[in-house]
Design brief:
Largest sheet of chain C: 8 strands, mixed
Number of strands of chain B: 2
Strand content of chain B: under 5%
CATH topology of chain B: MetI-like fold
CATH superfamily of the largest domain in chain C: Periplasmic binding protein-like II
Chains: A mainly alpha (294), B mainly alpha (308), C alpha/beta (480)
Radius of gyration of chain B: 25 Å
Number of domains of chain C: 3
CATH architecture of the largest domain in chain C: 3-Layer(aba) Sandwich
Number of domains of chain B: 1
Number of helices of chain B: 14
Strand content of chain C: 5-15%
Radius of gyration of chain C: 23 Å
Shape of chain B: globular
CATH class of chain B: Mainly Alpha
Distance between the termini of chain C: 63 Å
Oligomer: heterotrimer
Chain lengths: 294, 308, 480
């Protein structure tokens, strides 16, 4: 097992070095954390306090931006404005969950086949599936707008979820296949020989053993799907738009609602941030499996 | 039973037809779903060989390689190629250096380091389109905190994405903010899985640490670095979200990368032929790079398995 | 409806009560102005129904594609009346303008039958029409079976109406006899000056009356006012940068975008000496006193900055200034309006106009029902309702401009607006040459402007390059 190899431990660090390291790390953390912090601050201000110059940290926080997003009504100048942000959020949930679920159903058995059976053309097929990960999305999307119309898939969740496979499926195949290959087939053979069917071996032995890998892959695929912008921008109609596109909605003819843009950004990234914090172990594993180790 | 168990078993006992078909049955659905994608691909290839502008349907017809030939003498195309490549190499280069640096800082497995590395994942969780929006807010000349900070240290005329001289810097900065954590986490995983013996031996021999880094760490980490950068390069050369959300390719033609140019060609000029030809060229570039990448990745995986 | 309210509204119908009196009385009963307007419109709608079989398409439904815009808001606020009048159900998708036109292109180019009618600008129909995506509406307008006798097509401002009609020939004059009516005007914008009157008072400036003065006043405002820039104009890499103030001023010097030869061939016209002089002034004005992030400025930033007191004036759509003078904008009530003729020798302004219009998809499954919606939405009753109660300005119907309710409302809250409109209306029209490469040409024009403002290329050279590139593209497309 890999984790037996410990890290290279540095024994002799001078105090100066320690201070420099600390300073460097502080700068790094500041650079990567500050934007999120600042947008969070913006999201609890009114347009008025945001537009002050110079920018200031002194203000009375307000939840009106969030309130407007959640209730779907924003009271402004020319009366009230309907916002469909919650619908956008819901669309993101449907699209991401649906795509990952489908990708798992399709991808895990295929990954298993590639890992356990060297069959004719297996490497070619696997290679083809992997290379979809790197096809320029617009190349496929633009002609697809026309086909979707003919197939009746335009403006349906099903159609979008199918296109989302372009992101999710290669990722899942990639990671899960590597994970299966890491597990010795002996246990499965033993179980098979004990008289169990192929299906029950797959379900009772292979799947549970590969569980962490599947979790990591699913998590990563979920995040990629959630963060996607271009697919829905091109293919979905207004009531199917996810948050990444919906955040553009707060720009209206009678002014830009900066506070709401900020609140929308926070609400849109909150689910993935929460997931990352909650399941960081799988996430880190998925990331490194996905790109490097397999 | 027992007797059978001890027999050499790695191979299944008998091959029935259904057994041979099994892997195909398992992988077929995934393949079918993806093959659906091939149809539009072929369509795009076909369009790229046509004179096809939707606003002039009467002019439509095959012109074979003319769209591609026109690129040769088209300064806009060369600008697109140049910007796409500079963007890709700049972002990957910076992210790699920064990611490696941070990974080295966090190499030691302490609770604090682990906590920081998880915190640093947060930008990666932000959708690039939304990240671009965040940075746009922060660089707004009226109330943007960054504009204010930069001005207060003396750069009174720093215009971020609005000036051709700083636009590339600005979008690269956003890309670096989003994707450095990706490289960092990969290299951190690589670093932490390095064997300890070579370093212990070097310590005993009194080899200075800087030399250890050049002679031992870097060579052993190279496969990880290579794969991570190729992976990022493939994504980066296709950048759309950040650039489209920040400047739509402007100012001037400063940020007209492939996908933005193709998007505008399709949706604004309705010049489908040119748009498709641009995408085909981008596809050729990524196909070439992804071949290198996947082969390299497979080799790395074999090696990791051999060591395990 | 309650009895008291109903009595009041009927009195209004019979002419016993003025409109303002009615709204006041309804207000006393706790009915808000907007609701009162809807009530009045409901009664007018009932009157409308007498002369025409509005129920002919009862039970059908129509789907619209809309841009997030006050015009759409005004229509939606009144939509129940249409449903009651016709029994047609109406649904709609709304997109923000950043992605709106891409969505229209996506829907139409894929021949989607989802939408029956949609909002568009006249320029866009130069693509949609030849592509076969939209329908020539003359067939409906001139059919008395399909169009209500009260529709009164001749009530539309003639210049605006003509600007929505084109014969499809590259370079063909708008509104010619053989033109097809690609869309119906809904609301329109002239480009003039909106300025912050209190800022101008503070620095002792007058509203500029020509290009030279504009450059000066903008520079003065930039210099004398703290944290404010002199003038807001659009600058993003898009056609939208060319069409408002920029083209209006350009046309005032009698400069053109394209030349049309006798044989109908088109060629670039933006590298003349006059054009170069105008560009030089414009570029200098932005460099000296424009927004520091000018190159990302769209309608939204230009407006928001004026409304927030970050800019001293804008040379843009009149209604943009109108919106910024109301609501909870920091500068609401501080703005004033003036007509603007860039050329000192010109007698009056020649604003290029933008027309939000309604077009009918060629892939609509029920064009007759769609037309019912379109004629209602562009009809006199809804026009008056929208202009008087909502922000449906500028109206495209003469009858609305003649209505006291509307004009009084403008005069009381928007000083100088009506005079500005009336003075520049005679010279207002679309100043672009209608041709299918409109977006290629204007986007590249905007991109050239950005380069000139950034000093990447001198104005003269930049325009020569632009002309050369435009000519090449026209030739490639068989137009030049």
């Amino acid at each position: 097992m890999r984790d037996k190899r410990g890290p290279h431990v540095m024994n002799h660090t001078s105090p100066i070095e320690r201070i420099l390291r600390g300073a460097a790390l502080t700068i790094v953390v500041l650079f990567f954390m500050f934007p999120i912090f600042w947008i969070l601050l913006m999201s609890v201000q009114t347009n008025e306090t945001i537009l002050r110059s110079p920018p200031s940290m002194v203000f009375t926080p307000t939840l009106q931006n969030y309130q407007a997003l959640i209730t779907g009504r924003l009271e402004t100048q020319a009366g009230s404005l309907d916002i469909e942000f919650m619908q956008n959020l819901w669309n993101s949930v449907i699209l991401s969950v649906g795509s990952v679920a489908l990708a798992l159903v399709l991808g895990v058995p295929a990954a298993y086949a590639f890992a356990r059976h060297k069959f004719r053309g297996s490497e070619d097929i696997a290679f083809t599936l992997l290379s979809f990960r790197f096809a320029p999305p617009l190349l496929v999307l633009l002609p697809l707008t026309m086909y979707f119309q003919e197939l009746g898939l335009a403006d349906t969740y099903v159609g979008l979820i199918w296109v989302y496979q372009l992101i999710c499926l290669p990722l899942i195949l990639w990671i899960v296949r590597g994970y299966f290959e890491d597990i010795s087939p002996d246990v499965e053979h033993a179980y098979r020989i004990a008289g169990h069917s192929w299906l029950s071996t797959f379900r009772k032995i292979a799947l549970p053993l590969a569980g962490p890998g599947i979790a990591a892959a699913g998590l990563l695929a979920f995040i990629f799907a959630w963060n996607n912008f271009i697919f829905a921008l091109v293919l979905a109609s207004a009531d199917k738009q996810p948050v990444t596109v919906g955040a553009l909605n707060f720009i209206t003819a009678s002014g830009i609602q900066y506070g709401q843009i900020a609140a929308a950004v926070i609400m849109s990234i909150a689910p993935t941030l929460a997931l990352a914090l909650y399941a960081q172990r799988y996430l880190v594993e998925g990331l490194s499996l996905g790109a490097v180790k397999g | 039973m027992k007797a059978r168990m001890t027999a050499t078993l790695p191979k299944p006992r008998r091959f029935s037809v259904s057994r041979r078909a099994l892997p195909y049955v398992l992988s077929l659905p995934a393949l079918l779903v993806c093959i659906g994608i091939l149809v539009p691909f072929v369509t795009a290839a076909y369009y790229s060989l046509q004179r096809f502008r939707m606003s002039q349907p009467w002019n439509r017809g095959m012109n074979w390689g003319e769209n591609y030939l026109n690129f040769m003498s088209d300064p806009d195309f060369w600008q697109t190629l140049k910007v796409s490549l500079s963007y890709a190499f700049l972002t990957v280069g910076i992210e790699l250096l920064l990611g490696l640096g941070i990974a080295l800082l966090l190499q030691k497995r302490t609770r604090l380091n682990n906590f920081i590395s998880v915190m640093l994942l947060m930008p990666l969780m932000c959708a690039p389109a939304l990240a671009a929006l965040m940075w746009k807010l922060m660089t707004n000349p009226n109330f943007g905190i960054l504009s204010y900070l930069v001005e207060s240290i003396g750069f009174t005329d720093f215009r971020w994405g609005s000036s051709p001289s700083t636009a590339l810097f600005t979008v690269v900065l956003v890309d670096v903010w989003v994707y450095t954590p990706f490289i960092m986490i990969l290299l951190l995983a690589g670093l932490r899985s390095l064997p300890t013996q070579p370093f212990e031996a070097a310590d005993l021999d009194g080899v200075p640490r800087l030399q250890q880094f050049w002679r031992i760490t870097l060579p052993m980490l190279t496969p990880y670095i290579l794969t991570a950068s190729l992976f990022r390069l493939l994504d980066s050369i296709q950048q759309f979200d950040i650039i489209y959300a920040m400047t739509q390719g402007g100012p001037g033609d400063t940020l007209m990368v492939f996908q933005v140019e193709a998007y505008l060609n399709f949706f604004q000029s309705t010049n489908v032929g040119r748009s498709a030809a641009l995408m085909m060229i981008l596809w050729a570039i990524t196909f070439f790079l992804s071949n290198i990448f996947i082969k390299n990745w497979l080799r790395l995986r074999e090696r990791a398995r051999g060591e395990a | 409806m309650y009895e008291k309210e109903k009595g009041l509204v009927d009195a209004f119908r019979r002419g016993q009560l003025s409109r303002r009196g009615l709204i006041k009385s309804l207000g006393a009963l706790g009915v808000s102005a907007g609701t009162a307007g809807v009530l009045v419109n409901m009664v007018s709608t009932q009157a409308m129904a007498a002369d025409f079989d509005w129920m002919k398409h009862k039970g059908k439904s129509v789907k619209l594609l809309l841009n997030k815009h006050p015009y759409a808001d005004a229509m939606i606020a009144n939509l129940e009346n249409f449903k009651k009048l016709t029994g047609i159900d109406v649904t709609y998708d709304i997109f923000p303008e950043d992605v709106y036109f891409d969505k229209v292109t996506a829907a139409l180019s894929s021949r989607s039958s989802e939408y029956d009618a949609f909002m568009t600008g006249a320029y866009m129909t130069w693509t949609y029409g030849p592509a076969g995506w939209i329908t020539d509406l003359n067939e409906w307008i001139n059919d008395s079976d399909k169009t209500s006798p009260t529709y009164d097509w001749d009530d539309m401002l003639p210049g605006v109406r003509a600007s929505c009609a084109w014969n499809g020939k590259p370079g063909g004059a708008l509104g010619s006899d053989d033109a097809k009516q690609w869309c119906i005007p809904w609301g329109y914008e002239q480009n003039n000056l909106a300025y912050n009157a209190s800022m101008f008072d503070k620095i002792g400036a007058q509203a500029p009356t020509n290009m030279g003065e504009m450059v000066e006043v903008a520079a003065k405002a930039q210099k004398d006012l703290d944290g404010v820039y002199g003038i807001g104009v659009r600058g993003s890499r898009s056609w939208a940068t060319i069409h408002p103030g920029f083209l209006s001023g350009y046309a005032n010097f009698e400069e053109k975008d394209l030349n049309i030869a006798d044989d109908g061939k088109l060629s670039a016209a933006m590298n003349t000496d006059g054009s170069k002089a105008f560009h030089a002034d414009w570029v200098k004005m932005i460099q000296d006193s424009g927004a520091s992030d000018w190159s990302s400025h769209t309608w939204y930033q230009v407006g928001t900055d004026l409304g927030a007191g970050k800019s001293a004036m804008i040379y843009d759509a009149d209604i943009l200034g109108y919106f910024m003078n109301g609501g909870d904008n920091a500068m609401a009530g501080e703005l004033a309006f003036a007509p603007f003729a860039a050329n000192p020798d010109a007698e009056s302004p020649t604003p290029n106009i933008w027309i939000w219009s309604l077009a009918m998809s060629n892939f609509s499954k029920d064009k007759d029902a769609a037309w019912y919606f379109m004629q209602w939405a562009s009809g006199p009753e809804h026009g008056l309702f929208g202009a008087a109660e909502m922000d449906f300005v500028n109206p495209v119907r003469k009858s609305v401009w003649e209505s006291d309710v509307f004009v009084d409302r403008l005069n009381s809250g928007y000083p100088g607006y009506v005079e500005m409109h009336d003075l520049s209306a005679p010279g207002a029209s679309i100043k672009f040459t209608a041709q299918p490469l409109f977006f290629d040409l204007t986007t590249e024009w905007a991109s050239s402007l950005q380069k000139m403002v950034a000093n990447e290329v001198p104005v003269d050279e930049g325009l020569d390059q632009l002309a050369e590139s435009v000519n090449r593209q026209l030739k490639d497309a068989g137009l030049g």
